[in-house]
Amino acid sequence: MKYGLIIITFLFFTFSFAQEKEKQDLKALKKANEYVYQGNESVNNDDFVSAEMDYRKAISEHPSSVVGAYNLANSYYKKGDFEEALYRQQQVVENATSKDEKHKAFHNIGNILMKGKKCKEAVEAYKNALRNDPTDEETRYNLGLAKECAEQQKDKQDQNKDNKDNKDNKDNKDNKDQNKDNKDNKDNKDNKDQNKDKKDDKKDKGDQDKKDGDDKKDDQGKPKDDKQDQGKGDKEKKENQQPKPQPGQLSQQQIKSLLEAMNNQEQKVQEKMNAEKQKGVQIKTEKDW
Question: Taking the domain 2-146, which CATH number applies?
Protein backbone atom coordinates (compact mmCIF):
# COMPACT_ATOMS: atom_id res chain seq x y z
CA MET A 1 0.00 0.00 0.00
CA LYS A 2 2.86 2.33 0.92
CA TYR A 3 4.79 1.56 -2.29
CA GLY A 4 1.65 2.07 -4.37
CA LEU A 5 1.18 5.51 -2.89
CA ILE A 6 4.77 6.43 -3.73
CA ILE A 7 4.33 5.31 -7.32
CA ILE A 8 1.11 7.25 -7.71
CA THR A 9 2.77 10.37 -6.28
CA PHE A 10 5.73 10.00 -8.67
CA LEU A 11 3.44 9.58 -11.66
CA PHE A 12 1.45 12.61 -10.64
CA PHE A 13 4.50 14.84 -10.40
CA THR A 14 5.85 13.44 -13.66
CA PHE A 15 2.61 14.13 -15.45
CA SER A 16 2.44 17.61 -13.95
CA PHE A 17 6.05 18.33 -15.01
CA ALA A 18 5.31 17.12 -18.50
CA GLN A 19 2.26 19.29 -18.71
CA GLU A 20 4.21 22.30 -17.48
CA LYS A 21 6.98 21.66 -19.99
CA GLU A 22 4.45 21.30 -22.75
CA LYS A 23 2.85 24.58 -21.76
CA GLN A 24 6.24 26.30 -21.77
CA ASP A 25 7.08 24.77 -25.14
CA LEU A 26 3.79 25.91 -26.60
CA LYS A 27 4.36 29.36 -25.18
CA ALA A 28 7.88 29.50 -26.71
CA LEU A 29 6.55 28.25 -30.02
CA LYS A 30 3.84 30.89 -30.00
CA LYS A 31 6.43 33.57 -29.25
CA ALA A 32 8.68 32.24 -31.99
CA ASN A 33 5.83 32.34 -34.48
CA GLU A 34 5.19 35.95 -33.56
CA TYR A 35 8.80 36.79 -34.33
CA VAL A 36 8.55 34.86 -37.60
CA TYR A 37 5.46 36.85 -38.51
CA GLN A 38 7.27 40.12 -37.76
CA GLY A 39 10.21 38.91 -39.81
CA ASN A 40 7.95 38.14 -42.76
CA GLU A 41 6.52 41.65 -42.56
CA SER A 42 10.02 43.10 -42.58
CA VAL A 43 10.89 41.04 -45.65
CA ASN A 44 7.81 42.30 -47.46
CA ASN A 45 9.00 45.83 -46.71
CA ASP A 46 12.52 44.96 -47.97
CA ASP A 47 13.86 45.52 -44.47
CA PHE A 48 16.15 42.50 -44.37
CA VAL A 49 18.09 43.74 -41.35
CA SER A 50 14.97 43.79 -39.14
CA ALA A 51 13.81 40.51 -40.67
CA GLU A 52 17.08 38.81 -39.78
CA MET A 53 16.79 40.03 -36.19
CA ASP A 54 13.22 38.74 -35.88
CA TYR A 55 14.08 35.32 -37.32
CA ARG A 56 17.04 35.02 -34.97
CA LYS A 57 14.75 35.80 -32.03
CA ALA A 58 12.35 33.14 -33.24
CA ILE A 59 15.12 30.53 -33.35
CA SER A 60 16.28 31.62 -29.89
CA GLU A 61 12.77 31.19 -28.46
CA HIS A 62 12.21 27.80 -30.08
CA PRO A 63 15.41 26.27 -31.54
CA SER A 64 13.60 23.23 -32.92
CA SER A 65 11.19 25.38 -34.90
CA VAL A 66 12.07 25.12 -38.56
CA VAL A 67 9.96 28.06 -39.60
CA GLY A 68 12.32 30.69 -38.20
CA ALA A 69 15.45 29.05 -39.68
CA TYR A 70 13.68 28.47 -42.98
CA ASN A 71 12.54 32.05 -43.37
CA LEU A 72 15.90 33.38 -42.15
CA ALA A 73 17.62 31.27 -44.81
CA ASN A 74 15.31 32.69 -47.44
CA SER A 75 16.10 36.25 -46.33
CA TYR A 76 19.83 35.57 -46.64
CA TYR A 77 19.23 34.08 -50.08
CA LYS A 78 17.43 37.21 -51.25
CA LYS A 79 20.32 39.36 -49.98
CA GLY A 80 22.83 37.23 -51.90
CA ASP A 81 24.49 35.76 -48.79
CA PHE A 82 24.39 32.21 -50.11
CA GLU A 83 26.83 30.79 -47.58
CA GLU A 84 24.70 31.83 -44.59
CA ALA A 85 21.53 30.82 -46.42
CA LEU A 86 22.96 27.33 -46.99
CA TYR A 87 23.87 27.00 -43.32
CA ARG A 88 20.32 27.91 -42.19
CA GLN A 89 18.68 25.52 -44.65
CA GLN A 90 20.88 22.73 -43.34
CA GLN A 91 19.57 23.58 -39.86
CA VAL A 92 16.06 23.15 -41.18
CA VAL A 93 16.93 19.68 -42.53
CA GLU A 94 18.33 18.66 -39.13
CA ASN A 95 15.27 19.86 -37.17
CA ALA A 96 12.55 19.03 -39.69
CA THR A 97 10.01 16.44 -38.56
CA SER A 98 7.93 16.14 -41.73
CA LYS A 99 8.73 15.19 -45.29
CA ASP A 100 7.23 18.42 -46.52
CA GLU A 101 9.67 20.46 -44.43
CA LYS A 102 12.62 18.36 -45.60
CA HIS A 103 11.46 18.58 -49.21
CA LYS A 104 11.36 22.38 -49.13
CA ALA A 105 14.72 22.62 -47.38
CA PHE A 106 16.48 20.28 -49.84
CA HIS A 107 14.89 22.09 -52.79
CA ASN A 108 16.19 25.43 -51.55
CA ILE A 109 19.62 23.90 -50.83
CA GLY A 110 19.74 22.81 -54.48
CA ASN A 111 18.92 26.36 -55.60
CA ILE A 112 21.65 27.83 -53.38
CA LEU A 113 24.23 25.36 -54.72
CA MET A 114 23.29 26.20 -58.29
CA LYS A 115 23.93 29.87 -57.55
CA GLY A 116 27.40 28.89 -56.39
CA LYS A 117 28.01 26.86 -59.60
CA LYS A 118 28.22 23.66 -57.52
CA CYS A 119 26.13 21.67 -59.98
CA LYS A 120 27.19 18.18 -58.89
CA GLU A 121 26.23 18.89 -55.26
CA ALA A 122 22.95 20.49 -56.43
CA VAL A 123 22.00 17.26 -58.23
CA GLU A 124 22.18 15.36 -54.92
CA ALA A 125 20.12 18.05 -53.12
CA TYR A 126 17.32 17.90 -55.70
CA LYS A 127 17.34 14.11 -55.55
CA ASN A 128 16.85 14.28 -51.76
CA ALA A 129 14.00 16.75 -52.27
CA LEU A 130 12.28 14.37 -54.69
CA ARG A 131 12.69 11.48 -52.24
CA ASN A 132 10.52 13.43 -49.82
CA ASP A 133 8.04 14.64 -52.49
CA PRO A 134 8.30 12.82 -55.86
CA THR A 135 5.36 14.83 -57.26
CA ASP A 136 7.10 18.22 -57.32
CA GLU A 137 7.70 18.95 -61.02
CA GLU A 138 9.59 22.15 -60.27
CA THR A 139 12.19 20.16 -58.31
CA ARG A 140 12.37 17.61 -61.15
CA TYR A 141 12.94 20.39 -63.70
CA ASN A 142 15.71 21.90 -61.58
CA LEU A 143 17.27 18.46 -61.27
CA GLY A 144 17.49 18.23 -65.08
CA LEU A 145 19.20 21.60 -65.28
CA ALA A 146 21.64 20.61 -62.53
CA LYS A 147 22.52 17.36 -64.32
CA GLU A 148 23.20 19.21 -67.58
CA CYS A 149 25.33 21.77 -65.76
CA ALA A 150 27.29 19.05 -63.95
CA GLU A 151 27.95 17.25 -67.25
CA GLN A 152 29.24 20.43 -68.86
CA GLN A 153 31.51 21.09 -65.91
CA LYS A 154 32.84 17.54 -66.10
CA ASP A 155 33.57 17.88 -69.83
CA LYS A 156 35.34 21.17 -69.20
CA GLN A 157 37.42 19.64 -66.42
CA ASP A 158 38.36 16.71 -68.67
CA GLN A 159 39.30 19.12 -71.45
CA ASN A 160 41.39 21.21 -69.09
CA LYS A 161 43.07 18.04 -67.85
CA ASP A 162 43.79 16.96 -71.44
CA ASN A 163 45.14 20.41 -72.27
CA LYS A 164 47.33 20.31 -69.18
CA ASP A 165 48.60 16.83 -70.08
CA ASN A 166 49.28 17.96 -73.65
CA LYS A 167 51.07 21.04 -72.37
CA ASP A 168 53.15 18.93 -69.99
CA ASN A 169 53.99 16.51 -72.81
CA LYS A 170 54.89 19.44 -75.08
CA ASP A 171 57.05 20.97 -72.37
CA ASN A 172 58.78 17.62 -71.84
CA LYS A 173 59.33 17.28 -75.59
CA ASP A 174 60.64 20.84 -75.81
CA ASN A 175 62.98 20.15 -72.91
CA LYS A 176 64.22 16.97 -74.57
CA ASP A 177 64.73 18.82 -77.88
CA GLN A 178 66.52 21.63 -76.07
CA ASN A 179 68.76 19.15 -74.28
CA LYS A 180 69.47 17.44 -77.60
CA ASP A 181 70.29 20.79 -79.24
CA ASN A 182 72.56 21.69 -76.34
CA LYS A 183 74.31 18.32 -76.67
CA ASP A 184 74.68 18.78 -80.45
CA ASN A 185 76.03 22.29 -79.95
CA LYS A 186 78.49 20.97 -77.38
CA ASP A 187 79.59 18.19 -79.73
CA ASN A 188 80.01 20.68 -82.58
CA LYS A 189 82.02 22.95 -80.33
CA ASP A 190 84.22 20.03 -79.24
CA ASN A 191 84.75 19.06 -82.89
CA LYS A 192 85.65 22.65 -83.78
CA ASP A 193 88.08 22.81 -80.89
CA GLN A 194 89.58 19.49 -81.92
CA ASN A 195 89.93 20.60 -85.56
CA LYS A 196 91.45 23.86 -84.38
CA ASP A 197 93.97 21.93 -82.28
CA LYS A 198 94.84 19.77 -85.26
CA LYS A 199 95.21 22.86 -87.43
CA ASP A 200 97.44 24.51 -84.84
CA ASP A 201 99.55 21.34 -84.60
CA LYS A 202 99.87 21.25 -88.37
CA LYS A 203 100.84 24.92 -88.44
CA ASP A 204 103.40 24.38 -85.70
CA LYS A 205 104.84 21.44 -87.61
CA GLY A 206 105.05 23.56 -90.78
CA ASP A 207 106.79 26.34 -88.89
CA GLN A 208 109.26 23.85 -87.44
CA ASP A 209 109.96 22.36 -90.90
CA LYS A 210 110.51 25.85 -92.26
CA LYS A 211 112.85 26.66 -89.39
CA ASP A 212 114.80 23.45 -90.01
CA GLY A 213 115.05 24.34 -93.69
CA ASP A 214 116.32 27.81 -92.87
CA ASP A 215 118.93 26.34 -90.54
CA LYS A 216 120.30 24.32 -93.48
CA LYS A 217 120.85 27.48 -95.57
CA ASP A 218 123.79 29.92 -95.33
CA ASP A 219 123.51 33.68 -95.03
CA GLN A 220 122.94 33.98 -98.81
CA GLY A 221 120.03 31.59 -98.73
CA LYS A 222 121.96 28.72 -100.28
CA PRO A 223 121.82 25.21 -98.86
CA LYS A 224 124.63 24.46 -96.52
CA ASP A 225 127.07 21.60 -97.20
CA ASP A 226 126.12 18.99 -94.64
CA LYS A 227 129.41 17.13 -95.26
CA GLN A 228 131.44 20.29 -94.69
CA ASP A 229 129.59 20.96 -91.51
CA GLN A 230 130.02 17.35 -90.55
CA GLY A 231 133.82 17.45 -91.24
CA LYS A 232 134.15 20.63 -89.32
CA GLY A 233 132.30 19.10 -86.48
CA ASP A 234 134.46 15.96 -86.56
CA LYS A 235 137.61 18.10 -86.49
CA GLU A 236 136.39 20.11 -83.57
CA LYS A 237 135.40 16.89 -81.88
CA LYS A 238 138.87 15.38 -82.52
CA GLU A 239 140.66 18.42 -81.18
CA ASN A 240 138.44 18.40 -78.16
CA GLN A 241 139.28 14.73 -77.64
CA GLN A 242 143.09 15.31 -77.69
CA PRO A 243 144.60 15.11 -74.23
CA LYS A 244 145.53 18.41 -72.73
CA PRO A 245 149.19 18.75 -71.53
CA GLN A 246 149.72 18.33 -67.84
CA PRO A 247 151.67 20.99 -65.93
CA GLY A 248 155.49 20.61 -66.53
CA GLN A 249 155.07 18.54 -69.74
CA LEU A 250 155.46 19.50 -73.43
CA SER A 251 152.40 19.61 -75.54
CA GLN A 252 152.05 17.64 -78.75
CA GLN A 253 152.61 20.77 -80.78
CA GLN A 254 155.74 21.66 -78.85
CA ILE A 255 157.15 18.12 -79.32
CA LYS A 256 156.36 18.30 -83.00
CA SER A 257 158.13 21.65 -83.36
CA LEU A 258 161.16 20.34 -81.45
CA LEU A 259 161.44 17.26 -83.68
CA GLU A 260 161.25 19.40 -86.77
CA ALA A 261 164.04 21.64 -85.42
CA MET A 262 166.21 18.58 -84.63
CA ASN A 263 165.64 17.22 -88.09
CA ASN A 264 166.59 20.53 -89.63
CA GLN A 265 169.76 20.70 -87.49
CA GLU A 266 170.66 17.15 -88.37
CA GLN A 267 170.13 17.89 -92.03
CA LYS A 268 172.42 20.90 -91.77
CA VAL A 269 175.13 18.79 -90.08
CA GLN A 270 174.82 16.14 -92.76
CA GLU A 271 175.11 18.71 -95.48
CA LYS A 272 178.21 20.16 -93.74
CA MET A 273 179.84 16.70 -93.47
CA ASN A 274 179.23 16.01 -97.08
CA ALA A 275 180.86 19.30 -97.94
CA GLU A 276 183.92 18.49 -95.75
CA LYS A 277 184.32 15.09 -97.45
CA GLN A 278 184.41 16.71 -100.73
CA LYS A 279 187.20 19.08 -99.40
CA GLY A 280 189.06 16.19 -97.59
CA VAL A 281 188.72 17.68 -94.19
CA GLN A 282 188.17 15.24 -91.37
CA ILE A 283 185.05 16.04 -89.41
CA LYS A 284 184.47 15.53 -85.76
CA THR A 285 182.35 12.70 -84.82
CA GLU A 286 181.45 14.06 -81.46
CA LYS A 287 178.50 16.12 -81.21
CA ASP A 288 179.24 19.49 -79.79
CA TRP A 289 175.93 19.88 -78.26
Answer: 1.25.40.10
